[in-house]
């Protein structure tokens, strides 16, 4: 069944606190749509509005163009999976997955239940566990059972609220791949909530960035990572976090970031976007795009002191200090630098992002507003 979801100007308050403010988005049929944001951004509230558990104060919800605000949750054919499995501990895996089909709403025959439970269990690769008790399962297996229970009644829309957050890093990586494959096999519209940027980038066909109840940007993973709409989006994706520098723009539209370094020439596409009256700009550069050396190699190199050195296997995060500001780089861990050691850094300005007034990105390949419409294109 086709399942397009459209939210128009959705707002939700709890007493005097605004949880959602003017949310506009469209989730296309069979799309894996990710809602990303920090704790308290309004992600779960948005899922609950879609599921029918909360009624918005303002705005409209549509499923396939049909007004859906007052449709009861049980009549929406929407399945929801939470971080907490909420399984029946005294039931077997089969009985847990089958439980929705035995409810008064469905009352399926024994043959149908057997067929559907087996189908879903095979998709989730737990068909060999059907007779086991929940207490005998690992966390990853229990999560699959929770997914199976939601999937067994073939919902129009699948809502997932941080379903793998509590799993260990290795299992989360494995489950990300399996969730994406599962969604393709089921051919079901999926809306997935997470605060983990890796989950958002790896799972989402499109991503909506939610912050304090408002949408900051909607786009593909490439849109979000390479062309962030503002500093909040840029700093939310990537580890170590992106570096920001205050810079001065010269009369001939060149860039001065460090007083003792040679003035940087700005790419032409950025020069064309600069306001001639602007004298300051914010420059964002990811840690991987900053070079290091132990001697001053050219006039663009700047001397810094080592603030911290964090080995992470083959790579390490080097944090240096300059004029009271901390700057993060990614370097080989074999370097083993010491505190207060002097090093030189050089910014790769051709890989920089440029942010103007209100911390908005000055240029993007293409930029979408909260309604998903392209508002600027190079």
UniProtKB/TrEMBL annotation:
InterPro entries: AAA+_ATPase (IPR003593), ABC_transporter-like_ATP-bd (IPR003439), ABC_transpr_MalK-like (IPR015855), ABC_transpr_MalK/UgpC-like (IPR047641), Mo/tungstate-bd_C_term_dom (IPR008995), NA-bd_OB-fold (IPR012340), P-loop_NTPase (IPR027417). Keywords: ATP-binding, Cell membrane, Membrane, Nucleotide-binding, Sugar transport, Translocase, Transport. It comes from the Bacteria. GO terms for molecular function: ABC-type transporter activity; ATP binding; ATP hydrolysis activity. One of its GO terms (cellular component) is ATP-binding cassette (ABC) transporter complex, substrate-binding subunit-containing. GO terms for biological process: carbohydrate transport. SUPFAM superfamilies: MOP-like, P-loop containing nucleoside triphosphate hydrolases. Residues 5-237 form the ABC transporter domain. This is Multiple sugar transport system ATP-binding protein. It comes from Gracilibacillus orientalis.
């Amino acid at each position: 069944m086709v399942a397009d979801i459209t939210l128009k100007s959705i707002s939700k308050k709890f007493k005097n606190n605004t949880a959602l403010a003017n949310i506009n988005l469209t989730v296309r049929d069979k799309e894996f749509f990710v809602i990303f944001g920090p704790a308290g951004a309004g992600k779960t509230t948005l899922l609950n509005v879609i599921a029918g558990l909360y009624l918005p104060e303002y705005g409209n919800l549509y499923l396939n163009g049909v007004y859906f605000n007052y449709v009861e949750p049980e009549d929406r054919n929407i399945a929801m999976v939470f971080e907490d499995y909420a399984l029946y501990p005294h039931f077997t895996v089969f009985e847990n997955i089958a439980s929705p089909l035995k409810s008064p709403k469905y009352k399926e025959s024994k043959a149908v239940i057997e067929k559907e439970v087996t189908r879903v269990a095979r998709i989730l690769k737990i068909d060999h566990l059907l007779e086991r008790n929940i207490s005998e399962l690992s966390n990853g297996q229990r999560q699959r059972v929770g997914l199976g229970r939601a999937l067994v009644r073939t919902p129009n829309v699948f809502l997932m609220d941080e379903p793998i957050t509590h799993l260990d890093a290795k299992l989360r990586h494995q489950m990300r791949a399996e969730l994406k494959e599962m969604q393709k096999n089921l051919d079901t519209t999926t809306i997935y909530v997470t605060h983990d940027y890796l989950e958002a980038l790896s799972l989402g066909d499109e991503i909506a960035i939610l912050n304090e109840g408002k949408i900051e940007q909607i786009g593909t993973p490439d849109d979000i990572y390479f062309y962030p709409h503002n500093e909040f989006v840029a700093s939310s994706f990537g580890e170590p976090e992106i570096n920001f520098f205050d810079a001065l723009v010269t009369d001939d539209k060149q860039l001065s970031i460090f007083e003792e370094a040679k003035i940087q020439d700005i790419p032409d596409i950025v020069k064309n976007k600069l306001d001639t009256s602007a004298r300051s700009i914010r420059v964002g550069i990811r840690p991987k795009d900053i070079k290091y050396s132990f001697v001053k190699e050219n006039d663009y190199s700047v001397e810094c002191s080592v603030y911290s050195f964090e080995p992470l296997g083959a790579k390490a995060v080097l944090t240096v200090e300059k004029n009271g500001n901390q700057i993060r780089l990614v370097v080989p861990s074999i370097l083993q630098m010491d505190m207060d050691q002097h090093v030189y850094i050089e910014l790769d300005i051709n890989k920089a992002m440029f942010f103007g007034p209100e911390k908005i990105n000055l240029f993007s390949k293409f930029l979408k507003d909260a309604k998903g419409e392209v508002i600027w294109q190079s």
